[in-house]
Specification:
The complex is a heterodimer.
Chain A (H helix, E strand, L loop, with lengths): L33 H26 L13 H9 L7 E3 L5 H7 L3 H5 L13 H4 L12 H13 L10 E6 L6 H13 L3 E7 L2 E2 L2 E2 L9 H7 L4 E5 L3 H16 L5 E6 L18 H8 L3 H11 L5 H24 L6 H5 L7 H15 L2
Parallel strand pairs in A: 1-2, 2-3, 3-7, 6-7
Antiparallel strand pairs in A: 4-5
Helix pairs in contact in A: 1-2, 1-3, 1-11, 1-12, 2-3, 2-9, 6-7
Chain B lengths: L2 H11 L7 E5 H15 L3 E5 L15 H5 L4 E3 L4 H13 L3 E5 L10 H8 L2 H4 L9 E6 L14 H5 L5 E3 L4 H11 L6 E6 L6 E5 L18 E4 L4 E5 L3 H14 L4 E5 L2 E3 L3 H11 L2 E8 L4 H13 L8 E5 L9 H5 L3 H13 L4
Parallel strand pairs in B: 2-3, 2-4, 5-7, 6-7, 10-11, 10-13, 13-14
Antiparallel strand pairs in B: 1-8, 6-12, 9-11
Helix pairs in contact in B: 2-8, 4-5, 9-13, 10-11
The chains are: A alpha/beta, B alpha/beta.
Chain lengths: ~375, ~350
């Protein structure tokens, strides 16, 4: 029989510990400038607005489904912001819209995957430095290890190594591939940042029922991988931790795991009903303070930004969302021939024959 | 030592393709193919369990780590999903991985990475992330190995969109097909018949097709291994040699059998298949895998579709049974043997309509 859930199941029961930054070796990064702090805020507002709008898009029938990241803006924008898109590469799941936006990915092309236009989205992954959206939980984590080992093999001098950053959650941490990936990366000293967003919930199952051993970060120790468990709702802490992890990897010291403690404030997806597994009170207690509001207060208190700036950022976010929505609205279906053309680089006679039949018969419909 | 041999060894030392004809085992032929592939393309990498220092449990990668270094040929931790998942990332980074799973049955733990990732990444990425991965799988039975060390996974792989599947039947085919597969931009499952690893045969390094037969001039498509008039035996991998034996025996009774080595199990060379059966008007397909939903069903359908008007009898399938691949002596009961194939031929020859 299941043990009864504590009423505090979810993430607020697991406060983040201090980062173990003494385990990381690499040149320290410059403190964030006021301009960068404002840029981070603008990104978070843009992501928040696009994310909440996407749920409305789904309700309005513009897209068939969406996996919101409400509450994870600091974790996603902060980590994505630390990526050097001239040399690093990022491996997302299906809930990394904030990462994509922070990396400067074409957002119409990115959001097209939620319109079910094409599985991996329409963005060019090589150019964007963002692997195609991945529906298999934990599926791309090993790819990051392979890509990263490729950087080592390519013989790039240390300190200029490209780093792979791979995203997964507390739920995915149960997958065998995650453990294989951590072990492979550690054995090969591959420059990989395992970025875990522990958002408290794998659909309906809370972290307490998912993760043995106290935390995902604790597992890293078993592989000899330094781990940082950070407040994933503090965007500055996320940028700093991610930058120090990148510096550690780039210097040839092997992988790092970051467990960013955050909270999935919304449903798992637009098809989910959190009311079946958590109460509004639990949600409020577990979520803690809104990361966006928290950052806004901090910028105000530090005199980095004022109300006029916040208003401007929101207006820009709204304009951006309108543009993306128009792009998504205008997006037609892909031509059916692509189904056949994109299976292989070198097609097969059987596939050509099927395509020819399809073409002939669909023309008569 | 003759000059020819000395020249041949000199060629090997700098990795340039060999010339001439040599007697080699399939293990040697595969090893040489890999040697030349590594020499020819600095982006090719060989890795898997025990592939490095040991040279693989079947010694297919013997000596390659010493020659090309631990960056090009390396041992991985013992985890097949890890090996194949890592291959995806390396391919994304511009490499041509040639991973090995040690035995066919251990491809199962990697199925998620093979089916959900390797096979689909080109499609998912709209062709921007091709997966030039040549997965070597020591395959099929016949070596009295423990459970999961003898399996026939061709139908499983052939069913997956995005994968190509090939199996060599002799050292010559092994050399040329592997060299070809390892230069393709798409994922190829390379199924090596492990029971044939130590059988020697003539390898013509100059030509992919020493026999000069019409259908086998390139390393693509099927190949007629023996011409005949009365019936076509369709086979691949280790079953080709067995079918050639059967053909010799049948010839003593005046039955003239054609043996078609399918070689590519995806894509299947439909033109060669139907050309052969249109001529012989009878076909028996032989494979080690279980009967139900085996590749024999696909072959039989292609023959029926292409040769219905001229077929003299329904296509017969001589296969393994719908049971887990057995071990020990039971292997002899399971793998199609000469008698079972001969019975199948007899049923087809004696078939009368109505």
């Amino acid at each position: 029989m299941d043990t009864p859930l504590s009423p505090t199941a979810g993430n607020h029961a697991v406060p983040p510990s201090e980062p173990h930054s003494e385990q990381l070796f690499g040149p320290p990064s410059e403190p964030l400038t006021a301009g960068q702090l404002r840029e981070l805020y603008s990104l978070m507002v843009a992501v928040r607005h696009l994310d909440t709008s996407a749920i409305a898009w789904q309700r309005q029938g513009l897209i068939p489904g969406y996996a919101p990241e409400l509450g994870q803006e600091a974790a996603q924008v902060g980590s994505g912001y630390a990526v050097d898109t001239t040399r690093d590469f990022v491996f997302p799941t299906y809930r990394e819209m904030g990462v994509a936006r922070a990396m400067g990915v074409d957002m119409v092309a990115y959001m097209s995957t939620h319109k079910a236009t094409w599985h991996g989205g329409l963005y060019d992954p090589q150019e964007s430095r963002l692997a195609p959206i991945q529906a298999v939980v934990g599926g791309s984590v090993l790819h990051a290890v392979g890509w990263a080992h490729g950087q080592t093999l390519a013989g790039t001098a240390d300190a200029t190594l490209g780093v792979a950053m791979t995203y997964f959650g507390d739920g995915a941490s149960s997958q065998g591939d995650i453990h294989e990936a951590m072990n492979f990366a550690a054995v090969m000293k591959a420059p990989v940042v395992f970025f875990v967003q522990n958002n408290g919930w794998a659909i309906s199952v809370p972290t307490a029922r998912q993760v043995a051993g106290g935390s995902v970060a604790a597992r890293a120790a078993g592989y000899g991988i330094p781990a940082l468990r950070i407040d994933g709702n503090d965007v500055v802490a996320v940028v700093e931790a991610t930058r120090s992890a990148f510096a550690h990897c780039r210097a040839g010291n092997g992988p790092v795991l970051i467990e960013a403690m955050t909270y999935r404030r919304g449903p798992h997806s637009t098809s989910d009903d959190p009311g079946r597994y958590r109460s509004l009170n639990e949600e409020r207690d577990g979520a803690g303070e809104d990361p966006l509001e928290r950052f806004r207060k901090r910028l105000l208190a530090d005199g980095v930004a004022d109300e006029a700036f916040f208003a401007e950022a929101l207006a820009a976010a709204k304009a951006e969302e309108e543009e993306i929505r128009a792009g998504i609205q205008a997006l037609g279906s892909r031509p059916g021939g692509e189904m056949f053309d994109l299976v292989f680089q070198e097609t097969t006679p059987a596939l050509q024959a099927q395509a020819a039949n399809w073409r002939e018969e669909s023309e008569h419909v | 030592m003759s000059n020819a041999i000395l020249e041949s060894e000199a060629a090997m030392a700098d990795g340039t393709p060999r010339r001439g004809v040599e007697q080699l085992s399939m293990q040697q032929a595969l090893n040489r193919a890999l040697d030349e592939v590594l020499a020819g393309n600095p982006k090719t990498l060989i890795f898997g369990e025990d592939c490095g220092r040991l040279g693989g449990v079947f010694r297919i990668t013997d000596g390659l780590q010493a020659k090309y270094g631990t960056g090009r040929v390396f041992d991985t931790p013992l985890a097949e999903s890890g090996i194949l998942g890592m291959s995806v990332g390396l391919a994304m980074a511009g490499f041509h991985p040639i991973p090995e799973v040690q035995f066919d049955g251990f491809a199962y733990p990697a199925i998620n990475q093979i089916v959900c990732q390797i096979a689909r990444m080109n499609y998912r990425s709209r062709g921007t992330m091709p997966m030039p991965i040549t997965l070597r799988v020591p395959s099929f039975g016949g070596i009295r190995a423990p459970e999961h060390h003898g399996e026939s996974l061709e139908a499983l792989f052939a069913h997956v969109p995005g994968l190509k599947v090939v199996s060599p039947s002799n050292p010559h085919e092994a050399y040329h097909l592997l060299r070809y597969a390892a230069t393709r931009p798409d994922p190829v499952i390379f199924m090596e018949p492990k029971s044939r690893y130590w059988q020697k045969g003539e390898v013509n390094f100059d030509s992919a097709d020493p026999s000069g037969s019409r259908t086998g001039a390139s390393p693509t498509g099927a190949k007629v291994m023996r011409e005949g008039r009365h019936l076509t035996l369709v086979a691949w991998g280790a079953m080709v040699a067995r079918c050639l034996q059967v053909a010799e025996l049948a010839a003593e009774d005046g039955i003239d059998i054609e043996v078609l080595d399918l070689r590519w199990l995806k894509p299947i060379d439909e033109a060669a298949l139907t050309a052969s059966v249109r001529k012989t008007r009878r076909a028996v397909v032989v494979h080690e895998a279980p009967l139900t939903s085996g590749l024999g069903a696909e072959v039989a359908q292609l023959i029926t579709q292409g040769c219905f008007d001229t077929l003299k009898a329904p296509v017969e399938r001589i296969t393994g049974f719908d049971v887990p691949y057995p071990s020990g002596d039971l292997e002899d009961e399971y793998i199609p043997n000469i008698d079972r194939i001969l019975f199948g031929i007899q049923r087809v020859l004696e078939y009368r309509r109505g």
